[in-house]
Amino acid sequence: MTGPITVDSLNHWFGNGEARIQALFDINLEIQPGKLTILMGPSGSGKTTLLTLIGCLREVQDGNVMLLGKPLRGATPKQYNLLRRRLGFIFQAHNLHQSLTAMQNVRMGLELHKSANTAEFDRACAHLLTQLGLGQRLDYLPAKLSGGQKQRVAIARALVGNPAIVFADEPTAALDKESGQKTVELLKRLGQVRGTTTVMVTHDNRILDLADRILRLEDGRIVHDTASTIHRP
Q1: C-alpha span between 203 and 195 (Å, rounded)
Q2: What phi and psi, each to the nearest 5 degrees, are found at residue 219?
Q3: CA atoms lying within 13 Å on the CB side of residue 52
Q4: What predicted TM-score, i.e. pTM, was given to this entire model?
Q5: Listed residue (83, 73, 57) closest to 11, CA to CA
Q6: Distance, CA of 46 to CA of 183 (rounded, Å)
């Protein structure tokens, strides 16, 4: 079965002319549905560049990426926007609206879903925030929340629309060990129950045991893949 993400001979560059630098080299990859895949590697290894390319946040320059059965190379802005509606994004910067409560911030993740009524929206938001340990802070403004709590609100916002794929860049960096573990366990459970696929960039060694697959990048190349146990120096 073809996975929700297929990458074929992907290359990427930054800059122009003599300043042009290649960031990714001949990346080939298929990610299966419902799995938690972790991208690891030192700073500058290309892991965030790869995440943003397969997550519709950068245009594919060379090679091919199929996302949820749709080719990204040459896709129009409208096609990109339609795909993004089926994705969830979690970043290290929480980007919450300071004038909105935790509940209201999470509800923003449901704005594109017009089929449910207000009561259903509120139940979904409250349930997810409670799962993330914020059941007593639904009506708190971001100024009244700690850094870790703000990050958990951002995680809830990304997940509440039931995305097909979640892209996460250092989602546990601002969380303590217990909160980070619970967050990744939730992502893992969504994969098992709903078939949600998660691709995560992390340096957090505390959560590696939860991964279905770990890819290590160095100098823009995949050098180790636990799915194949192939190691290339």
Answers
A1: 25
A2: 50, 40
A3: 12
A4: 0.90
A5: 73
A6: 24
Can you tell me the distance from the alpha carbon of 35 to that of 3, in angstroms, rounded to the nearest whole number? 10
Task: Judge whether 78 and 87 are in contact, CB under 8 Å.
Answer: no
Residue 211 has which token pair?
A: 């991964």
Spatial separation of the C-alpha atoms in residues 181 and 172, rounded to whole Å: 8
Encoding tokens for residue 29? 């990859």
Residue among 31, 15, 14 at smallest CA distance from 23: 14
Which amino acid, one-letter code, is at 44? G
Sheet holding 5-14, edge to edge: 21-31, 5-14, 62-67, 70-71
pLDDT in tens, 30-87: 999 999 999 999 999 999 999 999 999 999 999 999 999 999 999 999 999 999 999 9
Give every CB contact of residue 197 below 8 A, 6+ residues apart in sequence. Answer: 3, 4, 5, 31, 32, 33, 34, 35, 37, 164, 165, 166, 191
Q: How many CA atoms lie within 13 A of 152 on its CB side?
A: 28
User: DSSP of 157-221, one letter per residue?
Assistant: HHHTT--SEEEEESTTTTS-HHHHHHHHHHHHHHHHHH--EEEEE---GGGGGG-SEEEEEETTE
